[in-house]
Amino acid sequence: MLKIENLHAEVEGKEILKGLTLEVGRGEIHAIMGPNGSGKSTLANVLMGHPRYEVTEGSVTFEGEDVLELEPDERAKLGMFLAFQYPSEVPGVSVANFLRTAVNSVREQEVPPMEMYKLLQEKMRLMDMDPSFAERYLNEGFSGGEKKRNEILQLLVLQPKLAILDETDSGLDIDALQVVARGVNQMRGPEFSAVVITHYQRILRYIEPDFVHVMLDGRIVTSGGKELAEELESKGYDWVRQEFGAGTQS
Ligand SMILES: Nc1ncnc2c1ncn2[C@@H]1O[C@H](COP(=O)(O)OP(=O)(O)OP(=O)(O)O)[C@@H](O)[C@H]1O
Questions:
Q1: Cα(233) to centroid of ligand 1, in Å?
Q2: Per residue in 3-58, pLDDT tens?
Q3: What percent of the chain has pLDDT over 90?
Q4: Are the C-beta atoms of 32 and 2 separated by less than 8 Å?
Q5: Separation of 186 CA from ligand 1 center, angstroms?
Q6: How many helices (H) and strands (E) does the chain have?
Q7: How far is the CA of 81 from the centre of ligand 1 (A)?
Q8: How far apart are CA 185 and CA 109, in angstroms?
Q9: Which of 130, 184, 177, 176 is nearest to 154 (CA)?
Q10: Between 173 and 53, whose confidence is greater?
């Protein structure tokens, strides 16, 4: 479904991704872990098409389409969903309006207002959100947890084929982490894949990944099942650096 091959990318002339290769199949949940500065957020930014990041080598395809040639909205139309650590505030645009516009821009046919209303109510109930939340302006004055909840609400409403979730859980309480997990677990199924980038292991207690990858210095240096996350928890990233760091054989 998603195929990343030998991806090299730089920001302001500095190479951050240095030959990253990853394949995500249909229905699979992948976690990417790695020490600070290893390039996890850079990967998410490159996948969403952030203009500041320049891909210098390699390829990214989604269901056979060359993603790197596409604008962010075209990527979304294909069924990719990219959630971000720092969603922007959009005063004057309510959550409900934003979601309606987002859904209509990725679907072939416009969703009738009543159907949209019901869809939103259903998903908000699922996330234990107060209905009045839909009338608030997007991200304006939202707490960290509310931003997260709103991001996952988008995921549930848009129903993408693949979600890339860049989860820095710093500053988020345990409830917010569970919200993300609940959203991903809700979506889980043969038609939904996810790449969950985690800056801390905690979230993997709630989302059980099929595969875990460890990133170091712009590459994936080792992959395994969920037991790899447990191994990292006990051995720490120094172990990864010693085993797979520069100058060692991988
Ligand atoms: N806009 C930028 N300008 C300069 N350097 C950047 C920029 N964005 C990222 N970097 C550098 O790229 C490297 C990788 O950063 P990135 O945020 O991708 O790492 P990360 O694995 O997500 O880290 P963390 O776990 O600390 O969030 C870091 O050394 C960072 O300073």
A1: 22
A2: 999 999 999 999 999 999 999 999 999 999 999 899 999 999 999 888 899 999 99
A3: 50
A4: no
A5: 31
A6: 8, 12
A7: 21
A8: 27
A9: 184
A10: 53
- What domains can be seen in the chain, in order of their start residue? 2-88+160-244 (3.40.50.300)
Nearest CA owner, ligand 1 atom 29: 37
- CA 206 to ligand 1 centroid distance, Å: 26
Range 207-239 burial, b when 16+ CB lie within 10 A, else e: bebebbbbbbbbbbbbeeebebbebbeeeebee
Pocket test of ligand 1: the residue of 40, 50, 202 to mutate, having most ligand atoms within 8 Å of its CB, is 40
What is each CA distance from 245 to 42, 74, 136, 218, 248, in whole angstroms? 19, 37, 47, 11, 6
Q: How crowded is residue 117: how many other Cβ atoms within 10 Å of its Cβ? A: 14
What is the value of pTM for the model shown? 0.90
Ligand 1 binding pocket, CB closer than 6 Å: 11-12, 14, 16, 34, 36-42, 52, 168, 199
The mean predicted confidence, pLDDT, of the chain is 88
Q: Whose CA is nearest to atom 28 of ligand 1?
A: 37
Q: How far apart are the first and last CA of the chain?
A: 26
DSSP character for 135?
Answer: G
